[in-house]
Amino acid sequence: MAFQPESSERRSATVSFLVRLRSHAQILRIRGASLVQHGSTRWAGLNARERGLVGFCAAFLLLVMVWMLLVRPALKTLDEARESIPQLRADLVQIHALVVEAKSLSRQVSGAIPDQQMRGAIEESLQSAGLSSRVQLLEEGAGGQANQRWLIVFSNANAADVLAWLSDVPYALRLQIHAADLARAVVSGRAQPDQLSGEVVLQQPSEAAS
Questions:
Q1: Three-state DSSP class for 189?
Q2: Using CA atoms, how far apart are residues 108 and 98, in angstroms rounded to an integer?
């Protein structure tokens, strides 16, 4: 029984709030109707040229709002993503190089391909990967020297093909990646995010060369 007065006061406050809310809503409806009527009256008083100007201004403001709120943020996001892709791919190349190097160091070197046959094996692997037409293959050092190296120069090569080749071929040929310097290719002054240029140096592990 002691809580009934408090409950009654709460109901009274709720009813009072709802009454005020309805009153404000009614006022807003009246003002809105008045503005619409006033606008209709003003619109009816305009000639064809003035109506065209008002319509043009309204369309222009709508386009500006769409640009500022929707198009511009989307384009900014796309530009930021496009700029980050080459760096991510370059980082991925370095990661692949480290992984392949770790595999080649941990693998037994028994059955390694002789130096005189290694050039042909590398060329064949590049051709199988679809990179033969975009790659120059050179040899560093004289035959029979320790740590003989093979320099592969990529020029505007497909990034996905290069990454796949780096992931599998050096490990399969029992070679170690001595150095990898790859970056996105530049064609006609514009960077190409899906192409890579640079150099990769392969060598046999020191145990195999000794």
A1: coil
A2: 18
Instruction: Give the phi and the psi of residue 40 in degrees, each rounded to 5.
Output: -65, -40
- For the entire predicted model, the pTM comes to 0.46
Question: What are the structure tokens assigned to 130, written together?
Answer: 């679809």
> What are the pLDDT digits (tens) for 75-88?
888 877 777 777 77
- The first and second tokens of residue 131, run together, are 């990179």
CA distance 205 to 147: 7
DSSP letter string over 57-89? Answer: HHHHHHHHHHIIIIIHHHHHHHHHHHHHHHHHH
- Contact between residue 170 and residue 178 where contact means Cβ atoms under 8 Å apart: no
SS (HEC) of 142-184: CCCCCCCEEEEEEEEEEHHHHHHHHHHHHHHCCCEEEEEEEEE
